[in-house]
Amino acid sequence: MANDRSQREDYTAPLRRLLLGVVLLCLLGIFLVWRIDSPRVERFRAQVVDKVVPSMDWAMVPVTATVNLIRDFQSYQRLSEQNRELRSELRQMRAWKEAALQLEQENARLLDLNNVRLDPRLTYVTGVVMADSGSPFRQSVLLNVGARDGIVDGWATMDGIGVVGRISGVGQNTSRVILLTDASSAIPATIQPSGQTALVAGDNTAAPAIDFLENRELVRPGDRVITSGDGGVFPAGLLIGQVAQDPGGRLRVRLSADYERLEFLRVLRHHGTAPITDPGSLVTPDGPVTINQRQEEAADG
After folding, report:
1. Are residues 154 and 262 in the same domain?
2. CATH code of residue 152
């Protein structure tokens, strides 16, 4: 076995060297033929190309497919990068859209506050609603204005349309507003156009009840309900809502304030009416007028 292997190796090595030499000679001959600048050689090269190249189309198919695959992959990479960029821009646009919607809502609420027609003698402080109580037994909200802004207990608060509640609890930087719907809320009111006086009392429902009505026959659903100013707590003439009737036949108030979107509230500065200590001064503020004084006033006139 060892002799057979050695004999095969003795024949194989010279054959390899011979084959390598032949290949090198062929390559050198092809190089020389391809480099010779002669019309006859040029015709020979053209004939070789005509014979070989058309028959090599089958060999170029994998190469062409590979090149096209590489190009398609590069195009897919570019599309993937553009898709990621577009998704990132879309997320940013959604964030900007949400911010724009919030700003639009806040702007609308502020415009509503500016459009409220109030007594020129009343001034106000606008606060932002920070949180609500979240309790079914106590309905209130917190404002970011307090004693530092001059807020006083009992002052009325309004949104862009109607009365929301009153201040009940003032801190240095915050204050609490008891809503009209709270069970502890009761506001003297006037029903127009009949002029009936009543008490709007909250009962933890969305529509406070109307109590102590003088003559119910003069009141109809849809009548306006405004503050009467009785008691000196609330200014007179502030819109509360409209009269409505529940299924049980009880009169209630459909509040004009939008309790679903309490974002900004206007706190009205109202120091109450001046106390009357001398009823006679309403008729004659400077005391009784004598005949001599009347004669002097007539002479001055």
Report:
1. yes
2. 2.40.10.340
Nearest Cα to Cα of residue 163 among 238, 224, 236:
238
In a domain, 284, yes or no: no
Regarding whether 138 and 185 lie in a shared domain, the answer is yes
Residues 36 and 134 in one domain: no
Question: In terms of DSSP bridges, do strands 224-227 and 209-211 run parallel, antiparallel, or are they unpaired?
Answer: unpaired
pLDDT tens column, 209-253 = 999 888 888 999 989 999 988 877 788 888 899 999 988 889 999
Structure tokens at 184: 């502890």
Closest by Cα among 239, 217, 216, 219 to 228: 239
* 110 lies in the same domain as 135: no
Bridge partners (DSSP) of residue 253 are 243
For residue 265, give Cα distances in angstroms to 3, 155, 256: 111, 12, 14
DSSP annotation string for 106-118: HHHHHHHHHH---
What are the backbone dihedrals phi and psi of residue 124, each rounded to the nearest 5 degrees, phi first?
Answer: -150, 165
Residues 107 and 236 in one domain: no
pTM of the predicted structure, to 2 decimals: 0.54
User: 188: domain range?
Assistant: 123-269
Q: What are the tens digits of pLDDT across the range 2-52?
A: 555 566 666 677 778 888 888 888 888 777 766 666 666 667 667 766 666
Same domain, 78 and 146: no
Assigned domain for 53 exists:
yes
Contacts of 225 (CB under 8 A, 6+ apart): 189, 190, 191, 192, 198, 200, 210, 239, 240, 241, 242, 243, 253
Token couple for 70:
């590489």
Residue 44: inside a domain, yes or no?
Answer: yes
